[in-house]
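Please discuss these two lines.
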Amino acid sequence: MNNYLKTISRIALLICFCLSFSLKAQSDEDILKSIYKQSLTNGKSYEWLDYLSNKIGGRLSGSTNAELAVQYTKAELEKLGLDKVWLQPVMVPKWVRGEQEMAYFKTSNDLNKVNICALGGSVATPEGGLKAKVIEVNSYQDLEKLGEENIKGKIVFINRSWEQELVNTFQAYGGCAAERYAGAAEAAKYGAVGTIVRSLSSRLDDYPHTGSMGYGDLPVEQRIPSAAISTNDAVKLSEALKKDKDLEFHFEMSCQQFDDVMSYNVIGEITGSEFPNEYIIVGGHLDSWDLGDGAHDDGAGVVQSMDVLRLMKESGITPKRSIRVVLFMNEENGLRGGRKYAEVAKEKNEKHIFALESDAGGFTPRGFSFDCSDLMFSKIEAWRPLFKPYLIHYFEKGGSGADIGPLKNDDIVLAGLRPDSQRYFDHHHAANDTFEHVNKRELELGAATMTALVYLVDKYGTETITNTKEIKD
């Protein structure tokens, strides 16, 4: 019996050796081909996203759904047979939308109901709603020109349009985001009683798009309610104001801010075989806004990041460095998860060499942006030919991701997956950010593309790549 067991053991060791040798003998082109094949024929990201979106739904920080998402993703990571899976505690804000918002304005001929939603962090309107005359501006910076005499007692309507000529939709979004975040605080300084902000979207539709806003150091008693209005209704309101400058706008919101509550980042790890104390992380944010189910923002990034570790295991890759998936909590209205992860990493003196974030939707991947030195970027660019067969061509220096940003130092390379973004802001923070708007193959291509980059970073490190020939050899 002992001889039999010894024989079986030797055979098992021989098989493992052969598999290991076979993997090492494969070229990078072969490894990437295997990764893409696994994702497109045996992917898990779409299945996971289906559950997150349709069984759990919107996952606003501090909510029951956010807690359910924590428990679900932790359980799924445990099923993958990773070396470690754990929860990292983090205190997060708890803001509740309350009842469905309602708004209308009257013209001489009609009562016009409009689509609004409270901006995240806003105070509620007074009981029974708020009604006041409206003054329209293009930017909160216009408020200073108007002065308190023209603003006091009115609702400020910030009607800043999307810059359609900008091909980079994130640039266009960034150009309008300050109005959403700071508009109410600035308007309140001039005596405004509320703000209505045009939704940050390139499309004309009836969906109001929420998002985070803040009051800075404004005293609680001076804070005013702030809502987003759909782009169609923003146009309608602007046209009505041209005809009647004394027009009154009525809106009702019952949102409420509670004390912070405990939540968690979800973390899984494959421990490195040669450099276990060097860390590569990949992640997205587990929380979402509450209007839709957060499929694109950022359920897609969450499941793609989870699948990176699964795809590496399925492809027979034993990483040299420790690979972590981090599902961050509270990106949308606080960034508490990203800051907590960086804080703990610093306390433990962990050496992070690379971090990749997916938080731009589940659309077709185009490439990556990198936050790194020029020298490091020139080394990374040597990988371009490996991605060409998969139509991945965008390798540019630029931003990475909000949640991995707190990790930034001189030693780490930060990167962001860059999918095609032309439709992203049609859904961003709105009720139509739902599962049926995510394409299975596009999602799986993104997961494979992320895995391929992580594989290359792990194999070559961030300081050892000299040229394309070295990579292929």
